[in-house]
Specification:
The protein is an alpha/beta fold and 450 residues long. The chain is 29% helix and 26% strand.
Length: 450
């Protein structure tokens, strides 16, 4: 895979992508069966009906044009052409989190992951794209509220993604959280974060660069380790005298551990320092200091990933599971609808099942939920299908080499939880895997936009 140099300016990128917002290893089934409130408190920003064409069939409204939402939009229309699909998102352009780490090491250009229009997706897949911000929900009246007016629905999918939870690393003061968000972004929500991180890496002159890894079911389990490799690869190629300090809240690398450890030890022995079981208690952004119970770490620059929770829109809409540690939605774990309400669904990274919060999972899950919606719109039933987590990680930039995992999920009756099933690990890094990585990404982009 030849390196493709970025050809798009930072200013152009910000114009296109600015402000796009996009646990445990098991989740109990016993707490997911109760019915959520019939009506959520609504914050209504617009008056009257939204200015949309009249529905020509059962209206399926999807909040969130991320991987999950766009996949459902396409596949629901395919499975049931009578659906009148409306996708609601506040931006016009899509920019993926997946493959972002490759951009840091100049392995892809910016257009590869950022040059995608929701308008193109809507035209190509015969749905309506509506630029608006969802503000509330009235489930009893089947109405979604937005700042551009209310949208009646027959079926509603809420796929708002994640927000950060800085309290999990001891940050409670708004001033400190703001400083961390702006100066040391996590790099897993807004695409502007990726611009900031890339600038940090490319302007780094030496010292300690910290990459933290949160506990729980965070977005894309291997991504922080892949990012450490790409930063180290850049330092190695450019002769930068720097160290990448990986502070992991987990006792071990969460997935593909053998492959990542091999890369750390064989490719970046003098660059990457890995420290497991690091529970962050506080961060001082001014002093560039990370505090734990027993010690402190100083750094010259950092990407601080604090841990995740479901997007706050889940609470706004009254869909929160009050027992969820990561403030995720309460839904039927097999069919994704709110218990007692087969008209409202939550998908993607806001759902509570312990599936990987990653692109391929959201894509395969979205294709299945589209089938569920199509079946229910026609009074039918379908069997449950497991999502698939196919995930590649680049571990070397020159030459390009990657590792991968391919897994499904199954419900364990003994533990009353979902677990990994049929796991296939490809932890011997090679160039062919790197080539497959790019083709996999292109396939996801095609599915959503082409």
């Amino acid at each position: 895979m030849d390196n493709i140099q970025p050809t798009q300016s930072r200013r152009s990128f910000l114009r296109k992508c600015a402000l796009v917002a996009g646990g445990s290893a098991a989740v109990s089934m016993s707490r997911l069966g109760s019915t959520a409130p019939a009506q959520a408190a609504a914050v209504i920003g617009g008056k009257g009906l939204a200015k949309l064409p009249k529905a020509k069939g059962p209206r399926l409204v999807i909040v969130g044009a991320g991987t999950s939402g766009l996949t459902i939009a396409r596949h629901a229309k395919r499975a049931h052409p009578r659906f009148d699909v409306v996708v609601v998102d506040k931006q016009y352009m899509y920019c993926s989190c997946f493959t972002s780490n490759l951009w840091y090491d100049n392995l892809i250009n910016l257009e590869f992951r950022a040059d995608y229009s929701f308008l193109d997706a809507a035209r190509n897949h015969n749905f309506i794209y509506f630029s608006a911000t969802a503000t509330g929900l009235d489930r009893s009246a089947h109405k979604l509220y937005t700042n551009m007016g209310e949208i009646p629905y027959d079926f509603l999918v809420v796929a708002p993604g994640i927000d950060y939870d800085y309290a999990r690393i001891g940050v409670k003061e708004p001033e400190v959280e703001y400083a961390l968000r702006t100066s040391y972004p996590g790099g897993f929500t807004m695409p502007t974060e990726h611009v900031a991180i890339r600038d940090k890496i490319h302007s780094f002159e030496g010292g300690v660069f910290v990459q933290t890894v949160p506990a729980g079911n965070y977005r894309c389990l291997p991504a922080p380790y892949e990012r450490a490799c790409m930063i180290a690869s850049w330092f190695k190629q450019k002769g930068i005298k720097g160290k990448v300090l990986v502070l992991d809240a987990n006792p071990e690398i969460t997935i593909k551990a053998k492959g990542f450890h091999a890369a750390f030890d064989e490719l970046y022995k003098d660059i990457i320092e890995y420290k497991p079981s690091v529970e962050i208690k506080a961060v001082d952004p001014d002093k560039r200091l990370i505090k734990t119970e027993f010690t402190s770490y100083t750094f010259d620059d950092a990407s601080i990933y604090p841990g995740v929770r479901a997007a706050t829109l889940i609470e706004q809409m009254g869909l929160l599971d009050p027992e969820s540690l990561q403030k995720e939605a309460r839904i039927d774990p097999y069919y994704y609808n709110v218990p007692g309400d087969e008209h409202v669904y939550v998908t993607g990274d806001a759902r509570p099942m312990p599936y990987s919060k990653s692109a391929n999972t959201a894509n395969s899950e979205g294709a299945y939920v589209a089938k569920v919606l199509a079946a229910r719109a026609q009074g039918k039933k379908i069997p449950w299908e497991s999502p698939e987590t196919l995930c590649y990680s680049m571990v070397n930039g020159s030459p390009t080499q990657a590792i991968a995992v391919d897994a499904h999920y199954a419900y364990d009756k003994k533990t009353r939880s979902f677990q990994f099933a049929n796991v296939k690990l490809f932890e011997q890094r090679d160039h062919a895997m790197a080539e497959a990585y790019l083709e996999w990404a292109k396939g996801l982009y095609r599915d959503m936009f082409a």
